[in-house]
Amino acid sequence: MAFHFEILVKDPMTQARLGRVQTRHGSFSTPAFLPVGTQGTVKSLTPEELVEMGVEAILGNTYHLYLRPGHETIGRLGGLHPFIHWGKSILTDSGGYQIFSLGDLRKISEEGVTFQSHLDGSLHFLSPEGVVGIQRTLGSDIAMVLDECIPYPSTYEYVKSSTSRTTRWAEKSLRARQEGDPALFAIVQGGMYPDLREESASDLARMDFQGFAIGGLSVGEPKSVMLAILQGTLPLLPERNPRYLMGVGTPEDILDAVVLGVDFFDCVLPTRNARNGTLFTSHGKLSIKQTQYAEDKNPLDEQCSCYTCRHYSRAYLRHLYMAKEILSSRLNTIHNLFYYMNFMKEIREVIQKVKLLDFHKEHQTHPCRPEMDETLQCHPA
Amino acid sequence: MAFHFEILVKDPMTQARLGRVQTRHGSFSTPAFLPVGTQGTVKSLTPEELVEMGVEAILGNTYHLYLRPGHETIGRLGGLHPFIHWGKSILTDSGGYQIFSLGDLRKISEEGVTFQSHLDGSLHFLSPEGVVGIQRTLGSDIAMVLDECIPYPSTYEYVKSSTSRTTRWAEKSLRARQEGDPALFAIVQGGMYPDLREESASDLARMDFQGFAIGGLSVGEPKSVMLAILQGTLPLLPERNPRYLMGVGTPEDILDAVVLGVDFFDCVLPTRNARNGTLFTSHGKLSIKQTQYAEDKNPLDEQCSCYTCRHYSRAYLRHLYMAKEILSSRLNTIHNLFYYMNFMKEIREVIQKVKLLDFHKEHQTHPCRPEMDETLQCHPA
Fold first, then answer.
1. Helix, strand and coil percent figures for chain A, each rounded to 5
2. CB contact under 8 A, B315 and A45
3. Is the pLDDT score of A373 beyond 80?
4. Which chain B residue shows the shortest CA-CA distance from A72?
5. What is the pLDDT of residues B167-201, one digit of tens each?
6. CB pair distance less than 8 Å for A41 and B322
7. Residue B201, H or E segment
8. Between β-strands B278-281 and B284-287, what pairing exists: parallel, antiparallel or unpaired?
9. Active-site residue B266, yes or no?
10. Could you tell me if the ipTM is greater than 0.90?
11. How far is B17 from chain A (nearest CA, A)?
12. Could B295 and A45 be called an inter-chain contact, meaning their C-beta atoms sit closer than 8 Å?
């Protein structure tokens, strides 16, 4: 069987689950965080570095790869895995998020979406069926259906009509599936309207998808709204399938969502923050450009055992950042992704030990929390 | 003894020597190529990656490190070696080349040079004695004297007066030396005037330096002029000391200079070219951005065993370059530096086997040669 999801432990006190996903390219433990490899590379790192820090699955962006170098090119080169020298699992998004972020450069119809490339202004049309085909050509392990990621705020009427179209697109995507295709996940929409979210989830839950994603969250709404939507939606999805919260988020958001029953996450936050000099540590966030670190001999986080913390001082990391050196992005990305992978490992361990609720409570007062931006948008551009 | 140079084999047919340099941070074989770590990092790579490809010594730029983060800061952090996590040898230049490249932003006197920082316009004064002190604070293994790198072309009168000042600065530098200091190398100047080059070399050869560099070449003069100057100058330098040709160059220039008796080289060419997508291969130079590589499954060079050639296609490297991905600079730099380190290893092997002359003749018709730019300037900015 190409795709299989097994729930190993169900937390008795929360909705959290410890699981294992099997794909054509190996297996990975859930709850899982998938680093974002937008253009066929997790920015600044090699596959070996990702594996060393425990990454078992990454995300690729269909929109970006479709435009450059082109899915047909990647297909002729044997698919995304050999092209980028990555032997483990790959989830590809549908491109919907990026296309719908283009604003005036795209036009939507029942058949699909016409848009202009952000690279050269060229005109493209993508249908739900076409998007399934692109991800087939890429050789993805887990493919996403085309959906409209609805802006926040939007009117009830707009969200209703958009969400029902996304559901019709999901049906078309299922019908376009062929033997040997990647696993296919549906995407729940419905904006911030609980009844539309419920309708979307119930409609999609009746269809034969391998997994279900929650899209259209972390788009600027208050954190409390996001959690309420999740709390209302997740129980409507089939328990035996994995649930994927797209584009989320901070470690605290991830932990909150795990408690509500989410299994996968992806977000550019650890990698983008790293390149901008913002580092996650056990004492909270740290902005490496600050003058106070100019002669600081300490590692970023004395509790961290990543390559960066084992060999480099804050002073050197500040110097590399100020001098705009490429090594700055590398060392910072290694640290932040290591932090995230370690955080997910801790979550899986506390679920195993039936201590998730204690861990969650401790993190309510985690030093990161007050500094986190509630309306943070962490999707790739 | 902190610094020692031993000649192991003298080629009977040419002036080439196989040698070994001992510093406080280990030893390295000569002829050697030192990758340039301008701002305390060989751009895009970690020290472990350099060691893996056989790098035993790197160059640091005093001008850049003096301005940012400042030599005093590096000194308080234990010196350049722990600061940048490099345990092997470091040669630092004097900053002369960079300062004299500033044009109108610098003013020269008998006592030294006043210049404006390219970073913030702040005013600085450096004397020959001060430059020795800065390199002491950095904890360098091999330090260079302050010199004026004379522009090409310059009048005989200007070159004469500048060169004699550089020689007086060399005497001052020697007098400023303290117990436990780095090894100190003088720099031969004299522009493109054979008699001034001879005078400079003879004057410096009488002083107690551990090594001698040839500066002010590869500044835009024809290749034939550079070789003639080297041929006239090198025999005037003490045979028992290492000779260092600064800022050179292409593999072919390096080979020509080895035949004339040069022991060390440094150049930004392999690293800068890598970032610009120009790769050295056994078939000549390759510009990875070319459309012909868009679906090319082959490695950059099927004869190369570097990490990049073992795992990635030209198609992927072209994609990373076109998408301006950080990994592009990394993979290309690994390849080009591996090519250079391998080339130096080959040179040392053919000297050992007394086959340098054959190797040199083969390289007269090397595919790289006709493409190489004769007036290439490969100093860091």
1. 40, 20, 40
2. no
3. no
4. B295
5. 999 999 999 999 999 999 999 999 999 999 999 99
6. no
7. helix B194-205
8. antiparallel
9. yes
10. yes
11. 36
12. no
